Amino acid sequence: KWFPTHVQATVLQATDLQPKGKNGTNDAYTIIQLGKEKYSTSVAEKTLSPTWREEASFELPGLLMESNPEVYELCLTVMHR
To answer: Would the pTM count as exceeding 0.85?
Structure first.
């Protein structure tokens, strides 16, 4: 069997975000998390439809082996600065 050693996530964009900041816009960024590892994109200022096109790579040190009972989720969260 083949077990991957890394996962790569690309954050392209978000659309129609709810306004959180002054003037009805956002200063948005995305947090990508796998297990305890985190990556944050840059901040896209004053927009409700930000574009990032940023990548993050996470190592999977034996996480997907048959005998490993641990389960990890790749979680992406869009935040307002």
So the answer is: no
